[in-house]
Amino acid sequence: AQERYASLRGLPCETLCGTRVGLHMNAGLMADLPSLEGSGAEGVGLFRTELQFLIRNQVPKRGELAALYARVLDAANGRRVVFRTLDIGSDKVLPYMKPQDEPNPAMGWRAIRLGLDKPGVMRMQLQALIRAANGRPLTLMFPFVAQFEEHVQGRDHVLRALDAEGRLGHPLPERVEIGAMLETPSLAFAPRQFFEMADFISIGGNDLKQFFFAADRENERVRRRYDSLNVSFLSLIEQIVARCAEVDTPLSFCGEDAGRPIEALCIAAAGVRTLSMRPASIGPVKHLLRRVDLREARAVIAEARASGAQSVRSAVVDWLVRQG
Length: 324
Ligand code: PEP
Ligand code: MG
Prior knowledge:
Elements: H1 2-8, E1 22-27, H2 35-38, E2 43-48, H3 50-54, H4 62-76, E3 80-84, H5 111-117, H6 120-133, E4 138-145, H7 148-167, E5 176-182, H8 185-188, H9 192-197, E6 201-203, H10 205-212, H11 220-223, H12 231-246, E7 251-253, H13 261-269, E8 274-277, H14 282-289, H15 294-306, H16 313-323
Helix pairs in contact: 1-14, 4-6, 6-7, 13-14, 13-15
The structure holds phosphoenolpyruvate and magnesium ion (MG).
Protein name: phosphoenolpyruvate--protein phosphotransferase
Organism: Halodurantibacterium flavum
Family: Belongs to the PEP-utilizing enzyme family.
């Protein structure tokens, strides 16, 4: 199977109906970088910057981070890298951070909430990213944005950092994109202005699903109860697709489901055109997507929905089996 996927490496991910789906990889450690060449990924759709913070026993220094980020951009060799600003708190507790005694850490003081309330580390990280870009394009996104205002404030921090770096004489990125992760259902209902302001949106399906079904992603018992191909969840994804399309904002999906071929197929059928996944999933996802017609997939999904099915999975699997 590995060989079969290797032979797909240079081929585009294009469905039988001619739809291109961008396949990018998720990363976070330097050890992930060789996969950029090996997997055939078009870029890094999610670089989880907190991993560099989690493997240390103190906050990394700005210079050290800038050097690491520069190595990531060097390895990407012009391909797009989406740096997600620190997503700590919840399941990602830094060993050197004062533990917060929170009853519900996943819904607690985490990610951009922490970044906005105590902006010191985020500012330092933004400076490191700008210096690492050293004139090259820079793509950033904020984790766990739950309302428009959080995106506005995060973006203001980026604009201020750019201004300050420029005044210090550092070369500014040729272009800066500032996106938001959509991982709380609330953001799908944000004002139109949010969708206009965001340079792109990436669905964090792991968290989005957890909060949509109120089912802890770390708790096997409840997690397995709700299929990602549940018709309600697919409707939410379609609504997000529609809201982004209305204002021409690029949309991607970077949760674990993007790397599962059947899920990836249904997410693409819902209208998402960029997926980001662990590198080893790129081959299997591309293999399936190149063999399907999304119009047929949409018809199968619509029929399953009309029948009152809770999940479209068995209908999609049956259809794929019939296709051989
Ligand atoms: C997600 O929530 O889907 C996501 C990609 O972020 P993480 O898994 O790091 O929370
Ligand atoms: Mg998340």
